[in-house]
Amino acid sequence: MTTQQADSATCPVTGARFSADSPEIATDFDVHSPAVADVAYERYAAMRAERPVAHSDLYGGHYVLTRYEDIHDVCRNPGVFSSESVNVPGSIGQDGPMIPIEVDPPDHTTYRQIITPLFSPKRMRAMEDHILEIVTELLDAMEGKEQVDFLNDFAKPLPTRVFLAMMGWPQEHAEQFHEWVDVIVLGVPGASEEEAMEARMGAAMQVYAYFAEMMDERDEQDVPEDDITQILLDGSFGDRDLTQFEILNILFLLLIAGLDTVKGALCHSVIYLAEHADQRHQLAEDPDVIPAAVEELLRYESAVIPARVVKEDVVVGDVQLRAGDKILIPFGAANRDPEVFEEPDEVDFTREPNPHLAFGAGPHRCVGSHLGRLELRIAFEELHRRFPDYRLDPDRPPVRHMSQIKGVASLHLLLGPA
Amino acid sequence: MTDRSRITIDRDFCAGHGRCYTLAPAIFEPDDDGFPVVVAGADDAATEAALDRARRNCPERAVQVADA
After folding, report:
1. Do A321 and A63 touch, CB atoms closer than 8 A?
2. Residue B9 lies in a domain
3. Is the CATH number 1.10.630.10 carried by domain A3-414?
4. In a domain, B46, yes or no
5. Is residue B1 part of a domain?
6. CB-based contact (8 Å) between B25 and chain A?
7. What residue ranges carry the coiled-coil annotation (chain B) (predicted)?
8. What pLDDT, on the 0 to 100 scale, is given for residue A273?
């Protein structure tokens, strides 16, 4: 006969002490709540200390993991932690699985063999001059101004125009893309879950229609180009051609993963640097520091908060997870874990080592990581070379937002020394 | 001094982050898809330090240096 207390009963086989309905691990963390945006890292720290495998009843119920080791394990075990659905709630309006993130091995491996080379360091090096041109053009427009809307004048157009260039689509469509992506990623702030989903699905339909149009134009022109659209149109899965449905779902993922992520990283970094003149001046005076600064700022503010689906009963920490459970794995929580990063809430450009998970880990490692790093490096080099001094506009303080891509909804700067 | 033969990439875990060839470009180079290839060993204090940074910064812990 056991004398263990009910509240500390440990399963002798698995070591699990808690399950989804245990009050000891309950949290009300809401990844979509605007109220969380300014306190997300405090919330993660509290959860990590008290309930590193927490459970929320929101959005049909899901776990929230906050330890680096747990999130790292989840990323690297796609057989147990499937990415067949990476969103909470389960859809952002996509029609079919987003490829390749919402596909598990072995099919995932085949898709990645098509998509990974599109974003290889070699292809990215070939993009470098073009990215510099776009950055230069955007910064030229900021010259002579005392106030700038950094979000709309720089952080939004840069990744969108790079994306359009890589696709081989017209640059003047950038504005339309911003509207679509904002709705798909953010839903409709303040609206009900149902209204937000309806808006997302509407925007997604328009995106698919646009993609289909761009593909049709390619067929008519019959002009082979070395851009992503053409490579996918010519692409094959094993011994068959990629279907239009597959190509649309690849493009959809590239769109939502490639724009708001870079936008968020640019804005988060600039908010930090605006308030830390010494470190900002270091970037201006010694550009060799910038690659390390990019890594550290990516660690400090990691935008992506993906989900996974548990495929078999498994114990994480001391919690029993069941097949079918959804878990949220905020990369930003992993990257502030004091078990791995000393003084995790400090930005230290000399941090060593810095094995951050801003781009995830395992087979679903962000396929655009080389592009993201390149965009951030060039942006930081040019911005700080030309505008070594800027500060937050005290009359219009920055506004952060949540969603599964944590970001910034408003960022106004005053240029020049204070 | 770390001979090239002692440096390996664990292909089961390498996901092509590229930290190794960024931090230790004398030792690692990217292939066409962005996965690293070991091209040299470390033969002075600077490359030894770079190799150690590459090993410690790999998010997949896939850079391995065998004992001499």
Report:
1. yes
2. no
3. yes
4. yes
5. no
6. no
7. none
8. 98
The domain total for chain B is 1
Cβ contact B57–A359 (<8 Å): no
Question: Are A361 and B58 in contact (CB < 8 Å)?
Answer: no
Q: Specify if B54 maps to a domain.
A: yes
H or E element in which residue B28 lies: strand B28-30
Mean pLDDT of chain A: 93
Q: Do B60 and A76 touch (CB under 8 A)?
A: yes
Across the interface, do A119 and B34 touch by the CB < 8 Å criterion? yes
Q: Which residues of chain A have pLDDT under 70?
A: 1-8, 221-224
Q: What is the mean pLDDT of each run of 10 residues along chain B (68 residues)?
A: 96 97 97 96 97 98 94
**What is the pLDDT at residue A52?**
97
For residue A224, what pLDDT is reported?
Answer: 58
Q: Which residues of chain B make contact with A365, given a CB cutoff of 8 A?
A: 15-17, 59
CB contact under 8 A, A291 and B57: no
Q: Which of B53, B59, B61 sits opposite A356 (nearest CB)?
A: B59
pLDDT at residue A222, as a whole number: 62
What per-residue confidence (pLDDT) applies to A221?
A: 67
Q: What is the pLDDT of residue A5?
A: 45
Q: Which residues of B touch A121 (CB under 8 A)?
A: 18, 21, 30, 34
Shortest distance, CA B19 to any CA of chain A (angstroms): 9
Q: How far is B67 from chain A (nearest CA, A)?
A: 21
Q: Which domain holds residue B23?
A: 16-61
A294 touches chain B (CB under 8 A): no
Question: Does the CB of A356 have a partner CB in chain B at under 8 Å?
Answer: yes
Contact criterion met (CB < 8 Å) for B59 and A355: yes
| Cβ separation B16–A122 shorter than 8 A | no
- Domain ranges in chain A? 3-414
Q: What pLDDT sits at residue A9?
A: 74
CB contact under 8 A, B17 and A365: yes
CB-based contact, A109 to chain B, within 8 Å: no
